């Protein structure tokens, strides 16, 4: 699969109805009329009786189950999936072999109530990715029923991650991250885990040409309550995808393009017959670390009489307001010397830092702008 060709075709298949971070059932339903009714199924309902949909593509013998927005506020992969769907619909030569070799069942929004509220959890305040054993929630039961009926050969568990993650203990942001989940407490390298690792190794090899040193690997600590660990435990190669941060891309439109490439490359590898032989390349990917804040203001004075210089770390809260996601800067840390990195860094050069003329900076404060010696600096993305 050719990286240059995928980048060239992306603009023509990007779904214009799906933009930004807030993606709900009402958004994806507007896209359904582009596709034959025969491929779209209503497979269940959520706690609040919103429909859960699946789409089916291809007619090959290799069965692949993909799901997105298990966490309602992780929407980047949903956008990328619909871009893939447009490519499938167009009968592109790029994906012809995938659809001939594979049958895909895709759940674009597993947690529609969480998507509506822009929350990780569902309407019963349950994290669906910790409900794989109890199956206490209707959304969890829907996914398991699809799994049992479809009997997939591979699973793609599509997520999004916060801006705090780095690829190793470096200043390289983890724009995409992957994991071949453990399937037992010993984290044994079983054949199905190795196959998932080999696929991720091929993804990494391609994507390093696009985002060198910006790919991370999640820790594989075992938790059978997690869906990926459970499906891996069932003996099915399961891949976790995490859409992260790209410079100045808080709407995650660049990361959407990268997820589009990563999803297609994963399907391509499977369709061409991946084996466990090359699994060791997986371990060349550095583990994720938490080395970033959204903003760090360095070398600031908090008042005229204080001779100490401090660093102020700021992290955005993502808040749903009138159908749009607003990024609210909040003070996360005030320290003498912060060893982490900021996606944006401001050097105060020893100047006095204030929120307004008479305010005091405290942890947890919202802080839309700062004043540096009467210079107003916005902290919004």
Automatic annotation (TrEMBL):
It holds the Pfam family Peptidase_M14. Keywords: Carboxypeptidase, Hydrolase, Protease. The keyword Hydrolase applies. Residues 15-356 form the Peptidase M14 domain. It comes from Winogradskyella eximia. Belongs to the peptidase M14 family. This is Zinc carboxypeptidase. GO terms for biological process: proteolysis. The keyword Hydrolase applies.
